[in-house]
Amino acid sequence: MNSRPGRYLAGDLPPGRRVAQLRARRGMTQQIFANRIGKSKSWVDKVERGLRNLDRFSTIETVAEVLGVTPEILFSKAARWPEPTGPAADALERVRATLACYDTTCTGLPPSADEVTRRINHAWEAYRHAHHPQVLRMLPDLLTDARHLAAAADTADLLVRAYRLAAQVLVKLGEAELAWLVADRAMTTAAGDPRRTATATISLTQALRALHRGRLAMTAATTAAQQLTPTPSRHTPPCHLALAGILRIQAALAAATCDDPTAVRHHTQQAAHLATELGDHPDHDGGGDLDFVPVMVDLARALIAAELGDSQHAITLHRQVTGGDAWRRLPAEHRAAHLIDISRAYLDLGDHRAAGQALVTADQIAPAETRTRPTAHTALTTLLRTGPTTADVTRLATTIGLIQR
pLDDT per residue over 324-376, tens digit each? Predict the structure, then answer.
């Protein structure tokens, strides 16, 4: 697989921080990483914070193997991380260039609000079907036009929605730092409006979780949800209930990364209550970006159980939820993303066949989800290292480029 020059990691980055960066880029939590190298989560945390040294060569070899690098990379000051290649890389570079431009001057007539709304709705529909390369190509012009329109009229809602879409795609691609920048722009654009702020906070919490700032993510999500729906009821606008429900799920997921089961229970109960108030209607906004139904809370519970180290319970919940019609009605992106995430629970249990089947099924549902997400690549790489794989898994790995043709 060809690759162009990548970006350098910071030259003075200590080994512990380099381990943390490489682990995060591969979508592994500290707990999952600890399980794979045969250490405790506390040991990993101390290494990453520089409180403990990597001083045994056997340990260094194990850490490097799980991270998919040579031991020298952990200590080299010239370590490189390859950039994405092909059309996706070009589209990502255009998104970066767009975000680096602060000019709100429109040379011609600004696009109409109806036209930008139509395009944002179309982009969100593409996202729901996991057409991530297509969304990446649409984002530069969409962000530019939404910014010009917001400068000429009171259309901040559209710009916040465009920023949120950009941030979510960037998180999937492993660009958490850039996603945080976009989410920060969305928060500024929201200007304190409760609904806009709640929308922007969804992308902010996702970026913070990807950056392993779980406590900050939980606080942000909780605050935005409380401001939007202090006392949710059936009289609360459906879009507010949906936004608050999504935020409560984000808060619960963030609490799990902080090993805070009490907060996890509180936020999942709040999310379940909001889902019940709302009912089983997936799109409460007409734009495709406020999907929130009860089954999403159940799926989040499965991922939370895996994050807390109870992989067996996670799989039990996963199997209960994915056998019903509500699962099949979810957007392709959500189903594929969940299958990729749950494959890690199967790996933790040593059930490599089930992990491989989850990844293959995810690819059948939404190919771009498995072929662009670093998390999926990490899971596939782990399967390839652990021994013989099924023909379907080998074929998927070959298609992605993890096995040379």
Answer: 999 999 999 999 999 999 998 998 888 999 999 999 999 999 999 999 888 88
Q: What is the pTM of this model?
A: 0.80
294-307 helix and 311-321 helix, angle to the nearest 10 degrees:
160
Spatial separation of the C-alpha atoms in residues 287 and 114, rounded to whole Å: 12
- Contact between 207 and 180 under an 8 Å Cβ cutoff? The reply is yes
Is the C-alpha dihedral spanning 276, 280, 286, 290 positive or negative? positive
**DSSP string covering 255-293, please?**
HHHTT-HHHHHHHHHHHHHHHHHH-S-SBSSSSSS-B--
DSSP code per residue over 220-265 = HHHHHHHHH-SS--TTS-HHHHHHHHHHHHHHHHHHHHTT-HHHHH
Are 165 and 127 contacting, i.e. CB atoms less than 8 angstroms apart?
yes
In this predicted structure, what is the pLDDT of residue 207?
94
**In this structure, what token pair is assigned to residue 222?**
């909780």
Residue 127 phi, psi (nearest 5): -65, -40
123 pLDDT more than 90: yes
How far is Cα 69 from Cα 213, in angstroms, rounded to an integer? 25
Which structural domains are found in the chain, ordered by start? 7-81 (1.10.260.40)
E strand or H helix at 157: helix 156-172
CB neighbour list of residue 247: distance below 8 Å, 6 or more residues apart: 198, 201, 202, 205, 221, 222, 224, 225, 228
**Number of neighbours of residue 64 by Cβ within 10 angstroms:** 20
Taking only the tens place, the pLDDT of each residue in 194-223 is 999 999 999 999 999 988 889 999 999 999
Token pair, residue 58, equals 């056997």
Count Cβ atoms within 10 A of the Cβ of residue 113 and give its class: 0-12 exposed, 13-18 middle, 19 or more buried: middle
Tokens (6 digits) for 347:
């790996």
Residue type, 77: K
Q: How far apart are CA 259 and CA 255, in angstroms?
A: 6
What backbone phi and psi angles, to 5 degrees, belong to 324? Answer: -105, 175
Q: Is 172 helix (H, G, I), strand (E, B) or coil?
A: helix
